[in-house]
Write a structure and sequence with these properties.
- This protein is mainly α.
- The protein has a single domain, classed as Hypothetical protein af1432 (Orthogonal Bundle).
- The chain is built from six helices and no strands.
- α4 packs antiparallel against α5.
- The longest helix has 17 residues.
- The radius of gyration is 16 Å and the shape is globular.
């Protein structure tokens, strides 16, 4: 009998490659990221988020796309950043894409995020 395969181990190289491709340019944009600090503080908030705070968090894919657009011309990378919170049932954000309307790369990044949290 073989050892069980750890999906997280298999996903790690792809995860690192996609994250570097998508977010590597952010290192050059560090001064512009001060706008995103509010959302970062909300992630660690010990109490439930208000409706306004939830909407602020839900803006982060659009903010990420806008921050990357001047330095990353690749539409696949920008799409991954924009749509990584879309859901198959259409209940995701920012655009409420449903089923296969969410690009495969964004679905893979979402799946990798789920695996790394498990």
């Amino acid at each position: 009998m073989t050892d069980p395969i750890d999906v997280a181990d298999l996903a790690a190289p792809l995860d690192a490659l996609l994250i570097d491709a998508a977010f590597g340019p952010l290192r050059r944009l560090a001064p512009d990221l001060s706008v995103a600090r509010l959302a970062g503080r909300l992630l660690g908030k010990p109490a439930p988020l208000s409706r306004a705070e939830t909407e602020t968090i839900r803006l982060h894919p659009l903010l990420g796309e806008a921050l990357l657009a001047p330095t990353v011309a690749h539409p696949t990378v920008l799409g991954i950043v924009r749509w990584h919170h879309e859901r198959w049932d259409g209940g995701g954000y920012p655009d409420g894409l449903e089923g296969p309307a969410t690009p495969l790369g964004a679905r893979i990044v979402t799946g990798l995020g789920c695996v790394s949290c498990a």
